[in-house]
Amino acid sequence: GNRTFTMIKPDAVENGHIGAILDKISAAGFKIVAMKFTHLSKRDAEAFYAVHNERPFFGELVSFMTRGPIVAAVLEKDNAVEDFRALIGATNPADAAEGTIRKLYATSLGENAVHGSDSDENAVIESAFHFSGREIF
Ligand code: ATP
């Protein structure tokens, strides 16, 4: 597939990294086809991360993701899902490769700066969660 979905999470927004992260995304060849600055409600975060609702960190994840504003975006590039996950690096910044967005900007395993869809199917579902068809170009 040629699209993926991302969020710049509350930690990275709080720490002033929106611009730097968007620069990395553009420099890596991704085109932004939708983008918004928004704030997840508790219901939004619980729904978005429903797949994790049995995990011990679910409450922590929901409270983190609702703590402040985020940037949500749909990105376009050949092989988008895989290439974007390579650009962001491992979930835990301690394990992330040099130069990746999480290595540069994430704080911890929980507060890891960015989201990237893990499959083409989830990219479509997650994009539709945040954007109407009219908002995606
Ligand atoms: P994302 O879905 O945000 O791109 P991911 O696919 O790398 O991240 P998942 O395993 O799907 O990682 O976990 C989703 C999110 O939940 C992580 O990005 C992180 O913010 C949080 N998380 C994962 N594991 C833990 C944990 N053990 N403790 C706290 N938070 C965690």
Q: What does this entry look like structurally?
A:
The protein has a single domain, classed as Nucleoside diphosphate kinase-like domain (Alpha-Beta Plaits). 40% of the residues lie in helices and 18% in strands. The chain has 7 helices and 4 strands. A 4-stranded antiparallel beta sheet has the order 2-3-1-4. The radius of gyration is 14 Å and the shape is globular. The structure holds adenosine-5'-triphosphate (ATP). The site of adenosine-5'-triphosphate has 10 residues, from α4 and β4. Adenosine-5'-triphosphate binds next to α4 and β4.
> Structural class of the secondary elements?
alpha+beta
User: In total, how many domains does the architecture comprise?
Assistant: 1
CATH topology: Alpha-Beta Plaits
**Which ligands, by name, code or SMILES, are bound?**
adenosine-5'-triphosphate
How much of the sequence is in beta strands?
A: 15-25%
> What is the second-level CATH architecture?
2-Layer Sandwich
Average pLDDT number: 98
Note the gap between the termini: 16 Å
Mind telling me the C-alpha Rg? 14 Å
The sequence of SSEs as H and E is EHHEHHEHHEH
Shape summary: globular
Tell me the total number of β-strands: 4
CATH superfamily: Nucleoside diphosphate kinase-like domain
Number of helical segments with 4 or more residues: 7
Q: Percentage of helical residues? A: 40-55%
* Assembly of the depicted chains: single chain
Largest sheet: 4 strands, antiparallel
Q: Which strands sit side by side, in order, in the main sheet?
A: 2-3-1-4
CATH class group: Alpha Beta
Regions with pLDDT < 50 over 5+ consecutive residues?
none
